[in-house]
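ok so for the tutorial part 2 we go from a plain amino acid sequence to predicted structure tokens. step 1 is just haveing the sequence, like this:
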Amino acid sequence: MRIVVTGGDGFIGQNLRVRLRELGHADAVSVTRQMGAADVQSALSGADFVFHLAGVNRPSDVTEFAQVNAGFTERVCSILEETGRRIPLVFASSTQAELDNSYGKSKLDGERVVAQYGATTSSPVFLLRLPNVFGKWARPNYNSAVATFCHNLTRGLPITVSDSGNRVTLLYVDDAVSAMLRLLDAGDAGQGMVEVGPTYSTTLGELVATLESFGSSRRTLVIPPVGTGLTRALYATYLSYVPPSEFAYALKSHPDARGDFVEMLKTPDCGQFSYFTAPPGVTRGEHYHHTKTEKFLVVHGSARFDFRHIITNETHDLVADAHTPRIIETVPGWAHCITNVGSSEMIVMLWTSELFDPANPDTVAAKVRTW
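step 2 — the prediction. this is what the tokens look like for a chain of 371 residues:
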């Protein structure tokens, strides 16, 4: 199947073309502004499916809205109609089609042209009224405020927010592309207006605060919950604007006679990650916790873990090494320590269930080996 993507070199178009390639659609043709009329005609005439994404939203002249968003759409539909074949067409419209402005009117006109093409040719047509789409490869100061904020914040440039309480509706580009790809197999089902989501409602103030927290996390090591929803999408987007010179950042080491201790990552509600080292024969720990728990993973060398119940004095010990990965977990009320029993440096990854609070450390010194 030959798939044509108009606006294939644009923000959404690039993301869509990459996904098409991943799915094995080798015959995907991109139509761009740089192509001549004959090349555009040839590409569309041979299409089996068309994603019409080409459009303008920040033209130098307001007349471009009608020329491109409506006028070029007429040309696309005319070429497809001339083939005499039923060629499915997906049209990327905008939620602003519901508003009384030049951009919205041009998108609404484009929708009418596409709907007429569908009625005339009996071709499946799909209309996607997209809100503010954000994600990797969006152009700063053009595609979305998110792109501008991310670009500036990752480069130490100022950002301007006219009204922090202004509410915006956002759509992540990966979700938009996934919705488009599902239409490849839709056939005649579901044609017409297609709902794309999930969408997220937030204020500009909340948006900026979230993006700023990503940058400060390199200093504080505290990362917000980035595994789901809007924060997940914003974090991926923010990182996509980090310049290569800033891909790495330093951590602070806390060395002493026992070895090094380095904090790596902290979360507001799921604890923190660290690692520590110890030379042969050195013991670390010698304490217990009331509530805090820890998980240890030996990634280099060999370690003996000793435990003692602080009430019953019951003891337990075990040896772990990097060759047989396993988690050793501490239990509240059991004093514990870790000794390097190997011949080389020991390196141990550590997760604790809560952030260290100097005012309430929940770490009580206690000897483990009293025998």
